[in-house]
Amino acid sequence: MRVGILTGGGDCPGLNAVIRAAVRKGERHYGDELVGFLDAWDGVRERRTMPLSVETMRGLLPRGGTVLGTRRGSPFDTDDGVALVKRSLHDLGLDGLMVIGGNGTLSVACRLSNEYGLPIVGVPKTIDNDIVGTDVTFGFNTAVQIATDAIDRLHTTAESHDRVMVVEVMGRHTGWIATSAGIAGGATAVLIPEIPFDIDELCARLTRRHDRGRYASIVVVAEGSEPVPGTLEMEDKVFDRFGHVVLGGVATRIAMAIGDRTGFETRVVQLGHVQRGGTPTAYDRILSTRFGVAAIDMIHDRQWGKMAVLRGDKIVTEDLEVAVGKTRTVDMELYEGVAEYFFA
Ligand code: F6P
Q1: In what order do the strands lie in the sheet with 306-311?
Q2: Most C-beta atoms within 10 A of its C-beta, which of 11, 130, 141, 292?
C-alpha cells in the first residue's frame, strides 16, 4: 500500500515515535511505501511531502516534536480545501491516510472519512489527555513528569522564603496535568477548569495552613481555570486567528489576589511549552509505538473512520465520531477523593 501520515494541532512528545513505529511495521512487515505530509493539512493541500522510511526515521524514537511539522487549521477553512485534499490523495496514489492529532484534527479526519469517504484512520494525541474514547493520550505522561519535576524543585525555594508559589500548567479545558502533577508533587491546592475556583476559599485554606506553621505552599493551576463568576476580576479574553482563547496568565492574577488578601509573599511560575518540548518518557515512547503499530494495521484492515485507543492495557479501535465535539474531563473520584485528603 501507499500510506500518507500527517501530524496536526499542537505538538506533543511521542509524535515521532508513532510515525517511526508505523513506518517500521509498514515498510518491514507489509512492504508499504510511506509518505509524510509537511505541516499538517497545509501540506496535503499544497502537496508538500517527504518520503518516510526506516532509514530516514532512524534515531527519532526519543526525539520530541514532529519531523513532519504541525499546524492548526483545517481543509474546511477554505471553499476548495476538501477538493484539494481529495485530489492530493488521488494524485499521490495513496491508499490510506494516518492522521495523528488532538480533538480538532480528529474531528476534521472524522468528517473527511464519514462525509467524503476518504480512507483515514486516526491516532489521538495531546498532552492535555482530554480525548474521549481513549484512557490516555501519549504526551500526557511526559507533561506530568515535567510539571512534577518543576514542583519538586519549587518546594525547596518556597520553603526557604516562606512563599506561596503559584504554578501554571497547561490544560485548556481540563485539569488532568494539574491534578496529576499536583498529586505527584504534593501541592497544597489544585485549580482546574472543571471546577470554578473560589479565591476566598483558597486564601482561607492557605491561611489555615499558615496558622498550623506551614508557611510555604504550592498552588497548581491549570491555564484554563476560571473563578466562580463575579468573585475575581479577570483580564478580557483574547482570541487567536483560529478562534481559540489565548491562555496563559491566570496564575499571575491568582498570585496577586492571594498576596492582596493574605499578605503572604507570592511568586508565579508559568511552565508553558516546556511541558510539550523535549524527549518523551519511556511510558509515552511505548504507548506511541503501540499506537503507530496499531494504526498501520488498521489501515491494512481498512478500518476507515476509526482511531487506535488505549482501553485498560490493550490497544483497541474506536470510531473517530466518539471523540468529536466532546472533552474527557478529570475523573472527579480522583480529584475529589485525593483533594479531600492531600490538597490542604
Ligand atoms: O492542546 C494542547 C495545548 O498544549 C493546550 O494545553 C494549550 O492551551 C495549547 O495546546 C497551546 O497551544 P499553542 O501555544 O501551540 O497554540
Answers
A1: 49-52, 33-37, 2-7, 96-101, 120-124, 306-311, 314-319
A2: 292
